[in-house]
């Protein structure tokens, strides 16, 4: 069973964080330059929220396309659903679908380990399916065929 820790190991542990008091314009700049869809919001070493393109788009829509002087705190999700390194991929899929979450922080107790995205999940599932397909093909290829059974009969 595929676990979050395995997905993070393949993905890497690069994290992009921000503080709640950072201006939204700075968050936009970081997300654009790094080509990322979320920022983990940390305060005093603790996870206090998530900022995704969803919150930014809602804010821009509500404010006529302007960010104003608002800070991340005013728009962030201050109660993000998180998972642990031992959470199964199936459980992450279920949570993402149930909560409409494209990004989930991975917490090991109070320590942030990384972020799992919907894309990361799709990539991991495809890789696992390809591995399983390759294993099945190798098993079938090595299956004793009728020709081998006849040869064994002839030897007796």
Summarize the structure.
The chain has 156 residues and is of the alpha+beta class.
Low-confidence stretches: none
The percent of residues in helical segments reads 40-55%
Largest sheet: 3 strands, mixed
Mean pLDDT: 88
Distance between the termini: 44 Å
Count of alpha/pi helices: 6
Radius of gyration: 23 Å
Order of helices and strands: HEHEEHHEEHH
> What amount of the residues lies in strands?
15-25%
What structural class do helix, strand and pairing data support? alpha+beta
Shape: elongated
Oligomer: single chain
Number of strands: 5
Strand order of the largest sheet: 1-2-3
Task: Please explain how this structure is put together.
It is a single chain. The strands form two sheets. Strands 1-2-3 form a three-stranded mixed beta sheet. A two-stranded antiparallel sheet has the order 4-5. It has helices at residues 4-11, 24-34, 53-62, 89-99, 118-141, 146-155; strands at 17-18, 38-43, 46-52, 103-108, 111-117. It has six helices and five strands, in the order H-E-H-E-E-H-H-E-E-H-H. By secondary structure, the protein is an alpha+beta fold.
């Amino acid at each position: 069973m595929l676990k979050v820790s395995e997905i993070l190991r393949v993905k890497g542990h690069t994290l992009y964080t921000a503080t709640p008091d950072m201006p939204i314009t700075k968050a936009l700049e970081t997300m654009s330059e790094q080509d990322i869809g979320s920022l983990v919001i940390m305060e005093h070493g603790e996870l206090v929220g998530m900022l995704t393109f969803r919150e930014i788009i809602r804010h821009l829509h509500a404010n006529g396309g302007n960010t104003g002087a608002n800070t991340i705190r005013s728009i962030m999700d201050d109660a993000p659903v998180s998972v642990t390194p031992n959470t199964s991929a199936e459980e992450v899929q279920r949570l993402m679908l149930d909560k409409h979450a494209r990004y989930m922080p991975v917490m090991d107790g109070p320590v942030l380990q990384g972020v799992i995205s919907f894309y990361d999940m799709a990539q991991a599932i495809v890789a696992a399916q390809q591995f399983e397909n390759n294993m099945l093909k190798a098993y079938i290829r090595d299956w004793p065929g009728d020709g081998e059974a006849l040869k064994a009969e002839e030897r007796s």
